[in-house]
Amino acid sequence: MERLLIDAPHIAAQLFGPQNCHLALLSRISGAHLFNRGTTLYIDTADSSIAANLIKLFCTLHEQAKAGIPIAEDRLEALYSRMAHGEDTTQKAQKQKTRELSACIETPKKCVQARNPAQERYIDLLKKHDIVFALGAAGTGKTYLAVAYAVHLLLQHTVKRIVLTRPAVEAGEKLGFLPGDLAEKIDPYLRPLYDALYDMLSKPKVMALVELGSIEVAPLAFMRGRTLHEACIILDEAQNTTREQMKMFLTRMGFGSRMIITGDCTQIDLPHEANGQQSGLIHAARILQNIPAIAFHTFTREDVVRHHLVGEIVNAYELDENRNTQT
Fold first, then answer.
1. Residue 217 region, left (φ>0) first, then alpha (ψ -120 to 50), else beta?
2. What fold, for 2-102?
3. Which residues contact 136 (CB under 8 A, 6 or more apart)?
4. Domain spanning 105-326, CATH architecture
5. Which helix (H) or strand (E) holds 144?
6. Rounded distance, CA 301 to CA 125, Å?
7. Separation between Cα atoms, residue 164 and residue 161, nearest integer Å
8. What is the model's pTM?
9. Which tens digits make up the pLDDT trace of 11-35?
10. Rounded CA gap, 253 and 223, in Å?
11. Which of 83, 171, 207, 268 shows the smallest number of beta carbons within 10 Å?
């Protein structure tokens, strides 16, 4: 059994996680038994290589915690996996710190940090391209990072306003059957965008910016006929656009603007099976791939940053769809 003494209680608390959740996660993925007594970590395993990798992992996390870099539970599995595959973390510690700081988006309430290499590449594309398509599974941070970057651009005065939009496509109940006026009917479709905004800015600040017109949240249908200059425009749930809607949206781009299009092609709610329509996101990804100024980034289920069960759920659905396709 290996033993590792952590020199400060507040550092030990960060390493072990709330109610020792980090230890439970690493026990599950490594097969070792991890537990603590006070600030001392115990690693119980018969495999010396597993013990060595875990010790290296906690030494790396210790240095990050001392440097003020937060320890995210959803990054631990990726870190352990890299060490288990033989990466020399002692030589990469400083590079890792620099990379994490560079892949961080500053907003008033928090520094939104990339949680895996896929998110790092996504942030890098956002900084280098005027139009970025982000495709992939639910829970990979596509929309959240896009909103964070839009807030950053607005507060840096790189753009004058943020426009957030989604297609109002029902996944069950019809809009006409919902109670309230038009604003109340469409609010459920736009609520995830507001939730992301409230993570970056205080609610009074969001409301003030909405009142000033610096932030606009509206259904996709409201974009028709407009040209948006000096704006960061985000189209969320783009898999539910038609080809005509996607063309309409992309041609709203004006001078000094950025566009971010996010969507998951496995969750299309369009009634395309009935009327032959193809998702505008799938169509755009096919015909725009060869335009150098437009970037495409695809997340996989391994990049999910929500609860670890989300990744397993996505995997189960993909396996089922593949079986159905083969039969």
1. beta
2. Ribosomal Protein S8; Chain: A, domain 1 (3.30.1370)
3. 142, 264, 297, 298, 299, 300, 303
4. 3-Layer(aba) Sandwich (3.40)
5. helix 142-155
6. 20
7. 10
8. 0.68
9. 888 889 888 888 998 998 888 999 9
10. 11
11. 171
